[in-house]
Amino acid sequence: MYQMSVKTRAVESMRGSGTLFSLPERRMTAGTLGWMVKEAGSVALQNLLDVQAHDSAIDRLDHRKATLPESQRLTELNDNVAELNADIAIATKNRDELAREQDRLEGEMGLADQKIQREESRLFSGAVSNPRELKALQSEVAMLKRNRGAAEDGLLEIMVAKDTADSTLSSLEAERDGKLARAEELGRTVASLLGAIDSELEGHQGARAQAAATIPADLLELYEKLRSTKGGVGAAALEGGTCQGCHTRLPSREVERMVNEGGLQRCENCRRILVVV
Ligand SMILES: [Zn+2]
Questions:
Q1: N or C: which end of the chain has fewer CB within 10 A?
Q2: What is the rounded distance in angstroms from the CA atom of residue 49 to the CA atom of residue 236?
Q3: What residues pack around ion ligand 1 (CB closer than 5 A)?
Q4: In this structure, are residues 234 and 225 in contact, taking their beta carbons and an 8 Å threshold?
Q5: Per the domain annotation, does 50 fall within a domain?
Q6: What would the pLDDT profile of 208-236 be if each residue is shown by its tens digit?
Q7: E strand residue ranges, the chain
Q8: Are residues 191 and 251 in the same domain?
Q9: Average pLDDT for residues 34-60, to the nearest whole number?
Q10: Which of these, 7, 19, 81, lies nearest to 261 by C-alpha position?
Q11: What burial letters (b/e) apply to 216-255, b meaning 16+ CB within 10 Å?
């Protein structure tokens, strides 16, 4: 019977009637419900304000957790590190290609040197005396030296390019390592901030559960419904004639009626549960 009545009241009030009941219903049920409304108005309603205070604190802490500036900076830093790692991979590939090209050219020059030495020693050994053969050998040595010179020019270019690639790579690595170190430090800060928020959350959740245990299920259900549609505030105190939910000053006759009636009341402006304090 109690549960049903509260639910009926809740549904009625959700429909937007100015007071909890339309007048005929109020008369019909006045005998039993009058008592129950008063009952709901005492400890349970005061505890509902506690629940609201803890829920608001939990919402603020959840929001703080989700929007922690340090977490956002950490995400940015980690993104930077990831971008730098991608750049480092490209720079490493570039530097390795140049190093391979340098090795190849150095090998080519080594072979050219051996060949030139071999041909020159044949040229100067006196073993070749035929002038035509000598001329051919001389042209061969000249050609080998030209090729070697071209390879040397290429090698010098590659070495300059490789120096640039090396310094690009090491400056990227230094930048990455610096950001990594900052990210690690910031990661520890974020973990400790989140840990502190979590322990605050736990405190509120425990206290909220204790306060909620004393509140009838239907009243809590009405509160939750209002909370979900009214910016997280389902119950508010009536202080000095002003609803603390919407900060509207209520007409003094309405305030007087609520104070006299006690029990579960709703703000006529925002429809939140009003607790007379
Ligand atoms: Zn209000």
A1: N
A2: 7
A3: 243, 245-246, 267, 269-270
A4: yes
A5: no
A6: 999 999 999 999 999 999 999 999 999 99
A7: 235-239, 242-243, 265-266, 273-276
A8: no
A9: 81
A10: 19
A11: bebbbebbeebbeebeebbbbbbeeebbbbeeeebeeebb
Q: Which two tokens stand for residue 155?
A: 């090698």
Number of H helices, E strands in the chain: 7, 4
Q: Report the candidate in 87, 61, 84 with the shortest Cα–Cα distance to residue 183.
A: 84
Is the separation of the CB atoms in 17 and 242 below 8 Å? no
The domain boundary residue, chosen from 140, 164, 199? 199
Supply the range of the domain harboring residue 161: 70-199
pLDDT of residue 22: 33
Rounded Cα gap, residues 222 and 234, in angstroms: 8
Distance between Cα 267 and ligand 1 center (Å): 5
Q: Return the sign of the alpha-carbon dihedral for residues 257, 258, 264, 266.
A: positive
The verdict on residue 194 lying in a domain is: yes
Residues 117 and 89 in one domain: yes
What pTM, to 2 d.p., does this model score? 0.69
CATH number at residue 167: 1.10.287
Q: Give the tens place of pLDDT for each residue, 186-205.
A: 999 999 999 999 999 999 99
Asked if residue 61 is part of any domain, the answer here is no
- CA of 266 from ligand 1 middle (Å) equals 8
Task: Please tell me whether residues 154 and 83 are part of one structural domain.
Answer: yes
Please determine, for residue 38, whether its predicted confidence score (pLDDT) is greater than 90: no
Whether 47 is in a domain gets the answer no
SS3 122: helix
User: What mean pLDDT is predicted for residues 130-140?
Assistant: 92
Query: What's the structural domain count of the chain?
Result: 2
**pLDDT score of 40:** 59
Residue 259 Cα to ligand 1 middle (Å): 15
Give me ligand 1 centre to Cα 214, in Å.
24
**Of 135, 169, 199, which closes a domain?**
199
